[in-house]
Amino acid sequence: MLTKKQNIDAIDSFSENLEIEGRSLWKDARIRFMRNKAAMVSLIILCMITLAVIFVPMFAEFTYDDTDWYALHQAPSTLHLFGTDSLGRDLFVRTFIGGRISLMVGILGALVAVVIGTVYGAASGFLGGKVDRAMMRLLEILYSIPFMFLVIVLVTFFGRHIVLIFVAIGAIAWLDMARIVRGQTLSLRNKEFIEAAHVCGVSNWNIIRRHIIPNVLGIVAVYSTLLVPSMILTESFLSFLGLGVQEPMTSWGALLQEGAQTMEIAIWQIAFPAAFMVITLFCFNYIGDGLRDALDPKDR
Amino acid sequence: MNSEKKLILDINDLKVQFSIPSKSLLPWAKPHTLKAVDGVSLKLYEGETLGVVGESGCGKSTLARAIIGLVPASAGSVVWLGEDLTKLDHESLRLKRKEIQMIFQDPLASLNPRMNVGDIIAEPLRTFYPNLTKSEVKEEVKEMMYRVGLLPNVINRYPHEFSGGQCQRIGIARALILKPKMIICDEPVSALDVSIQAQVVNLLKELQNELGLSLVFIAHDLSVVKHIADRVLVMYLGNPVELAECDALFAEPKHPYTQALMSAVPIPDPRIERAKKIQMLEGELPSPINPPSGCVFRTRCPIATAECSKEKPQLKGNEIHSLSCLLRS
């Protein structure tokens, strides 16, 4: 009996000393996200597509610029799984290579936009007053530059290059991000915990870093997952107009453009790249929706 | 009576005004000024608690924010240990934060929801003593948590996992960790329910005795102020109305506004409560953008005469009891 009581006491004091692991808002959101079936399925499919575009071209039989003069416009077969294009290049490899470029433009472009936009927006909203006004006017000036015009000027001056697409898309996309983050920051700025941080003597930069950015990150995450598909679409659009990647390198947009020309005689040339692109865009949108639901504090 | 005590804070004719852009479309229309705090003078001694009371919108919180430098003072001085805080530059003011800390009204809103309790309490420490190692910081945080009545094993939890009273304890721990000399409490208990209010107020009192803190305690609940304060400042529309030692003020309120406030305090005895006559104030609180001339209280004062609109009364009286009324003293 005595030993039992001692045991209980020991357990008691042990459990009191044990540090309880708290559940952060991020952890909460992750649990909610995992419960969202559509988002989880999209995430898995997207991971598979990403792995495929990275690894399939490495182990494929053909490279993306191998031309086979005896197999022009060939329908899908066991040798060419997705068929060949008008120059006899294997579409299976080209679809994944194109996916590489499209996803890279989408993700890197969104990343650049998110980093610049978040820092700019948070700084502008937090500093307020004249600085804010000046920064917002600059933003509006950049807004007023027509996007297509900028792209055409860049392409005529520097030639067609994938980096230019990054530059052009990145230069435009962060503007929206900055506005969203600024709005969020303005509403956070007068919260008591920011005042408390001022009282604790935390420097402005650390307030932005430690208090503002973590609290706007939710909306940034949602917005950036929705930004990726719009980036992919923009790149496809540019490639479709012939302003995108340089042959023989390709992207989903460029493949669609080629496929569209031969649609009547070789439907597979447009069907496979289009299917991949549509699935990817769907996945990103579902993930964005899932993230929004998971991070929405009102859902709690 | 306080002559042997050390003066730590001396506020002289402090004014805080906000300019409000005029609604008129004409660009040369003059902006309005909102006089949130209009000439408050007070002294705070070491180890003393000063209660500040008044109805909503009378400038209590603005006074607190002006003392700590969250809003700039328009005129007057805030002398902290011989140094005028209103004249300091940003960096030296930041260093003063080691000595003056603040507790906020809404316990949950004053804690960053993305940080855990340990990080929240440690933040001032990390800011002012960046050389401390992680384990030293953790040790201090745990000790402070123990002191304010939080179990140290909840150090990794997040604010939303705590009740309001516990959140306020976290706020108190954060304010205390730098070992300040003065804490400004901006309605620290008004968002809590009554039983928790008592706990938090008693905790503050205990900590004050142990550490020799000075407190500026802002509240609109007179019974709480009576319990904790040594001296009480009553404010109305940004102006000081009556400044007196707590016992003297509650025994014999002199200013008509203070009398009206006191009569509104409920007494926990139905028979006395029913017999009591509440002295109602007529009308609404005037706008601080366009306050009445002379004595700001005259529009609602039961004893006001024509005299009152001519001259603005100043606080006069002795150390124990002073009030600003042209008719009474």
Account of the protein in words:
The complex is a heterodimer of chains A (300) and B (329). In chain A, 75% of the residues lie in helices and 0% in strands. Chain A is an all-alpha fold and 300 residues long. Chain A has a single domain (26-66, 78-299), classed as MetI-like (MetI-like fold). In chain A, helix 3 (37-59) crosses helix 11 and helix 6 packs antiparallel against helix 7. The longest helix of chain A has 37 residues, at 91-127. With 329 residues, chain B is of the alpha/beta class. Chain B folds into two domains: 7-99 and 181-323, P-loop containing nucleotide triphosphate hydrolases (Rossmann fold), CATH 3.40.50.300; 111-179, no CATH class. Helices cover 30% and strands 22% of the residues of chain B. In chain B, the strands form two sheets. Chain B has an eight-stranded mixed sheet with strand order 6-7-8-3-9-10-12-11, with helices on both faces. Chain B has a four-stranded antiparallel sheet with strand order 2-1-4-5. In chain B, a hairpin with a 3-residue loop joins strand 11 and strand 12. Chain B starts with 6 loop residues before the first strand and ends in a 6-residue tail after the last strand.
